[in-house]
Specification:
The structure is a homodimer of 132-residue chains. With 132 residues, chain A is an alpha+beta fold. Chain A has 2 domains: 9-75, Arc Repressor Mutant, subunit A (Orthogonal Bundle); 77-127, Dna Ligase, domain 1, CATH 3.30.1490. The first copy, chain A, contains 4 helices and 7 strands, in the order αβααββββαββ. In chain A, a hairpin with a 6-residue loop joins strand 2 and strand 3 (69-73). In chain A, helix 1 crosses helix 3 (42-54). Chain A binds chain B through residues 60, 62-66, 68-69, 85, 87-88, 94, 96, 98, 100-101, 104, 107-108, 111-117, 120-128, 131, and chain B through 60, 62-66, 68-69, 85, 87-88, 94, 96, 98, 100-101, 104, 107-108, 111-117, 120-128, 131. Chain B binds a DNA duplex (25 and 25 nucleotides) through helix 1 and helix 3.
Chain lengths: 132, 132
Amino acid sequence: MGEIRSYHTKQREMVLQFFAAHPDQCFCVKDLTAQKSILVGTATLYRALSLLCREGKLKKYTESDGSGAFYQYNDSEACHCHFHLKCLRCGQLIHMDCGFMKDMQEHIETDHGFLVDSGKSILYGLCQKCRH
Amino acid sequence: MGEIRSYHTKQREMVLQFFAAHPDQCFCVKDLTAQKSILVGTATLYRALSLLCREGKLKKYTESDGSGAFYQYNDSEACHCHFHLKCLRCGQLIHMDCGFMKDMQEHIETDHGFLVDSGKSILYGLCQKCRH
DNA sequence: CTAGTTGCAAAGAGTTTGCATGGCG
DNA sequence: CGCCATGCAAACTCTTTGCAACTAG
């Protein structure tokens, strides 16, 4: 892990605090600038998000249609070895920590020679609530 | 499937022909405009890509970092029920038609209540060649 | 004091849209 | 002939960058 030289600033603190307070939700930049608890210029916000992602404190996702990125708090180190399901309708992100997926990863590696990066792969579909 | 009213134009023909001639490759808009065999204005190109995707003749992907979309010929109807692996290094797209994935889909549906859309989900990672 | 940080505004990349002209059927 | 498509330019969205002032350590 390469060390990142950086100061501790109140702007980045505000951003991280907000994410920590909503660990189960994803936010796009627009959501964040609309927050009254985040008083940070847009450029600084982008720089903070980028830094926090590199530090592993946040996780960045991209919408399936490619229209913009969204970010979420990444508290567990376990996130490195689990998959994410994202509902196409309500946007909910589900963390799936399940042995079956480990098996799948192994299967793909041994039978198809492909090393799946679970942190960069998201399965899209419909959650329980939105299936009607 | 809703019918799409549209004329048969030589511009769309050029675009589709090009994709059909390179069924195993992905192209971004920049790639396409650089092709001498595709003489189409940028706006028309976007409109053609959008239409061809809606018709199911092309498939749209988005880079894992969210920086732009890419498109690929979608010849098999079977694509509706198989998964895609995309190499983060060389960009190769692998179609994975495998019973294991069907099982996975079923497992996620029954045990996690989530209906995975295989057409919209891509697993990212490293292919055999790029794992070194 | 020094090096990293901020905010603003400007610049970029990718994509969409308005509109007059042109082409398919 | 009617309706859809094209091409251009302008508009838009999202994100990055240059720069002078500022601040953490």
